[in-house]
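Students often ask why inverse folding is considered easier than folding. One informal answer: many sequences map to the same fold, so there is more than one right answer. In these notes we will look at a single instance of the problem. The structure comes first.
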């Protein structure tokens, strides 16, 4: 499988190259040259497979030419061995026709582990084969950072630098990142928003000498391998609920558009997906787009669901590229315009095409809290603020006879204050994290300045390699 850039100015690459490169050098995102196709017979043959086996089969066409299905299976078995639920991604019914798939049983209690645990191992595999070392830089609004750190800690072919917006992650989220003592991990708290952090990371990738010197690599959801690793659980849910002999719909609490893009990818691969629902908080750029073709950047407003406090949903570019019939010139023009004006000028036809498949629902903090309370009272289900938004979006778009599966993306114990307000319950952290608040933190506070941060990273990674 070869990969092309959404902006058309980068040479096509193999899976391993795309894994290490993250962002394409023309500023675009990598997309598979063609979508792997599975027939109804192929899908049926995957019913009942243990999750790592299903994952290896589904991901193999994307890594073809770089990593074999056997290697994938070994890595997937290791990646999901640390999950604290035997089903890895258990499915629960909460209402008629409304299901919840829990993606938070990994080491950092958020869905990012689903992809990151595999990615850390893929990086190690490829870098060992090539005898190379890279510096992974990432921006996080909370969960990506800890998932990346957990997946990469102690691996000597990787240095990891994570930028988070100072004071805008929950305390559990921050501590999960800053209490990891391994020397290959650096945490920077930026005086700014998540979007500022994301811009800084993009800035580092555009600074070609810095990128080359540091051998920069990314594990943000712009990395195609992350999307690929998020595809199997949608298939797992769909097969459990009767696909391919029945349609299914998915609802996803959405920030950077990475998780829901994986849901959409399953449809490109031949799974009968009926409808995709985007859930957002008051940072509702995606729902405004879906409802009114209004993709205009606003200020980021802090919410109860910090991992969705985002105004620039990077992975949307991948959907746009496909909806534009893979016209990279138009895609590049629209994305450059968005950067400069803060408004994305999407052709009416393209917007209509998006609306035939996607719908959006935004909940403010008050509505999120009442949704958490309702689920607890009426179904005995404890959903964290992110998951509650996804479930509400799914309920709103549910159709008779078609199962709606909402993705639960974080463990409620990650957001104890919100849970306590809504339900009176203060959920306990699982045993592996019980002493989190006693561990020593280690991080540096830095200004929102690209040159300063680049200098900090140079000296931090220099320290690591000596
Ligand atoms: C990252 C995250 C999201 C948003 O996922 P995207 O792929 O960025 O859309 C939602 N919920 C939680 C808990 C997350 O960590």
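Output (designed amino acids):
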């Amino acid at each position: 499988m070869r990969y092309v850039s959404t902006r058309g100015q980068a040479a096509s690459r193999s899976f391993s190259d795309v894994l290490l490169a993250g962002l394409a050098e023309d500023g675009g995102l990598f997309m598979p040259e063609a979508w792997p196709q599975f027939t109804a017979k192929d899908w049926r043959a995957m019913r009942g497979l243990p999750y790592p086996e299903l994952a290896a089969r589904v991901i193999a066409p994307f890594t073809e030419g770089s990593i074999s299905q056997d290697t994938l299976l070994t890595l997937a078995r290791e990646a999901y061995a640390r999950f604290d639920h035997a089903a890895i991604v258990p499915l629960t019914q909460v209402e008629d026709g409304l299901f919840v798939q829990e993606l938070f049983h990994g080491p950092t209690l958020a869905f990012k582990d689903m992809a990151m645990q595999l990615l850390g191992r893929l990086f190690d595999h490829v870098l060992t084969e090539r005898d190379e070392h890279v510096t992974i830089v990432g921006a996080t609004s909370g969960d990506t950072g800890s998932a990346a750190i957990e997946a990469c800690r102690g691996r000597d072919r990787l240095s990891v630098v994570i930028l988070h917006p100072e004071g805008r992650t929950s305390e559990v989220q921050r501590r999960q990142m800053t209490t990891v003592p391994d020397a290959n991990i650096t945490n920077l708290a930026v005086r700014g928003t998540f979007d500022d952090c994301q811009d800084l990371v993009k800035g580092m990738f555009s600074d070609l000498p810095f990128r080359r010197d540091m051998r920069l690599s990314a594990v943000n959801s712009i990395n195609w391998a992350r999307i690929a690793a998020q595809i199997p659980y949608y298939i797992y849910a769909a097969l459990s609920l009767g696909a391919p002999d029945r349609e299914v719909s998915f609802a996803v609490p959405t920030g950077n558009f990475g998780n829901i893009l994986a849901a959409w990818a399953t449809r490109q691969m031949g799974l009968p997906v009926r409808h995709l629902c985007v859930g957002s908080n008051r940072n509702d750029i995606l729902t405004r787009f879906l409802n009114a073709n209004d993709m205009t950047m606003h200020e980021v407003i802090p919410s109860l669901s910090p991992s969705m406090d985002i105004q620039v949903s990077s992975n949307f570019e991948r959907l746009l590229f496909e909806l534009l019939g893979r016209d990279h010139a138009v895609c590049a023009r629209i994305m450059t315009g968005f950067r400069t004006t803060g408004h994305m000028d999407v052709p009416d036809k393209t917007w209509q095409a998006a609306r035939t498949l996607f719908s959006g629902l935004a909940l403010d903090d008050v509505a999120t809290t009442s949704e958490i309370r309702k689920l607890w009272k009426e179904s005995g289900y404890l959903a964290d603020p992110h998951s509650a938004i996804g479930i509400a979006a799914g309920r709103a778009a549910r159709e008779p006879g078609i199962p709606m599966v909402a993705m639960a993306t974080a463990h409620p114990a990650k957001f104890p204050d919100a849970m306590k307000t809504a339900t009176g319950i203060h959920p306990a952290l699982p045993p592996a994290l019980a002493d989190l608040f006693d561990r020593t933190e280690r991080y540096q506070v830095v200004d929102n300045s690209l040159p300063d941060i680049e200098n900090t990273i140079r000296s931090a990674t220099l320290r690591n390699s000596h």
